[in-house]
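Q: Structure tokens for this one, please.
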Amino acid sequence: MIGFLSKKQIKTRTELRARSFDAMAVMILLAQLPHVFHLPIWISVFGAGVVAIKWWNVHHPNNLKLNWVLSSRAAVVLGLLGGVLIKLHFGYFIGRDPCVAFLFLLLGCKFAEARRQSDATTLMCLSGFLLLTQYLYSQSILSALLTIPAVMSLGVALSILNEHSTRSLSNHARLVGRLLIQGAPIAALLFIVFPRLPGPLWSLPEDATATTGLSDSMSPGEIGNLSQSDEVAFRVDFEGTPPDARDLYWRGPVMSNFDGSNWSINKLQADGAIETSNTTADLGNDNSKSISYTVTLQPHNKKWLFALEQASSLPSTGESNAGKFSLNPEIRADKQILSNKPITNIVQYKQSSLMLDRYTPSTRPSAIDLILTGKNSRTAAFADKLFSKHETPMAFAMAVLSWFNTQPYSYTLQPTLLGDSPIDEFMFDTQNGFCGHYASAFVVMMRAVGIPARIVTGYQGGEMNDDYMIVRQSEAHAWAEVFIDGQWIRFDPTAAVAPSRVDYGLAASLPEGEPVPRLARAGNGWIKRASLRWDRVNHGWQRMVVDFNNESQSKFWKKLGAPNPQLWQITIALLALAAAWCMWVLRPSRSAMAPVTEDQKFWRAYSQYLDKLGVSRLPAETGAQLTKRASIELSEHSELIARIGLAFSKIKFEPISNKRKSAIRVQLKRDLKKLASIARRAKTQQIALQTLQGKSSATS
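A: Here is the predicted structure, written as tokens:
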């Protein structure tokens, strides 16, 4: 039939209707919604704003200025402008964030110049791809929940685009919902039994964006700033009873370089990987202090991993996850645990540790652990004086801790700003600070008398949430490590000033009135309870769904009491189950019959009304023939019947626009009501006539 139509008629048939634009606008906005949480606000306004303007223009097409702005040329200009602005904003273009942002904007620009069904098909593909990219940022249950309405809207848009009737929006939604529900069992079956791939299907260049977490350098106040954050650093599942709070020292970056103000990692020592095997022999075989646990580490864009002191094994992601994460971890000479690349996604690894506060290194300390600059001379002089009163390094270290405990030092997140000699000013002038201040002063005093010492940063503490522990950025901490009698020994000067920091957490150690992160505060308010419950749901989702791997599959088969099946067995079983499910879903039933359209309902009503007026359709009679015969036999209503017949002919056979068809249907509905009224009057008159005839027969 298309071959006999003019170019204008073909164009009319391929042009999108207003309700198609409505469906696609909703689809695009729902696909863009998950990215609003991590893209810059101007990109969200730009991309979603273009969609809103296009939708408004579809329903108000007389605005000539908007018609030009939403042309194909303008869409290209907007896309190029968006690309330039993205490059200027991020400083680079090849990476996750700028590429996703550019796709976000391109989707809006493509919608702005959409005219035909081919444009709609492109938009559906782009929307589905944009929706998938949200999992490059988060695989939480919230991401999954946001996907459901977006997928529903995509299905509804596809249904509306290909419809040949005026089915209501609710009918489209029910159809798509039913299809998704019917496909869910097969998807769940594939998820549980299909073998996992050893690595990701693709990879992206790493983004040069900052992430909240510890840094590779430290000035005394930096960790105090980090400790005001509620963000999760990592979660821990212990095998057995968790350690006491005072033993929860999560070792991270180790800093030996000191320039008088700032500490930084010793690159030479950190890059000399020597501890790449099990370190239990170095620490002593004390099985009573051994503990195993699983760490779920949040992305922090650095290479270091965290473990309780002292790590007795390399982190293990398991054989099934080795390709997925590719950590290739190493334990360096200073006991830092490093991955071979920055942690840009959630990583889960198993770890073992010995709960000891000291270890024997395989090499002697380097000269860098003794270097002290010319600054902070007052602290060095005080250290010399105090050291002269003690015979051993251990006695001197304990004397320094005693000094912090007995002098009027205070623990605060809002310390006084320090100048060019920060340690001197802190020790003898301000006497208030955070963990970084006390650890720095302690290490400087050790080095001043020739004892090797360094700063260790990481986290101290954690909060149990049912069966796992949450370690937040507010638990960020710094402590000292001193080389005495052939061992590196942990000292925490903060514990001498504020013991409650180690025993009960950050909030218990700060003076009243200081700002404390909401989730680190003491008490059990409803906000904190709700946050912990939501975190528990997300952690369960991570363990049971996101981290479901070959090892999880093996456990699943063991619970069923069955051996691990071979690939060919899985394939045959899946095909059989899928075929059985499809046969059940597609089984013949009355409800599976094609739905009656509105036009068919009109025709049935028309036939019934004519039948009541005494004009029944003959077996081989067409609709046009029935209308012609009814106009003759019901001559007093011929004009109404002819108008109804003409309306059916236009709707069925003439290539007119949907808007015109809708207007014809409105008039047809009015005419059918008139015909129904005539049929009712005729039926009433017939009943009255039969009643009179009955009475006459009875009288006779």
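A few notes: The CA atoms of residues 107 and 123 lie 7 Å apart. The chain is about 50% helix and 10% strand.
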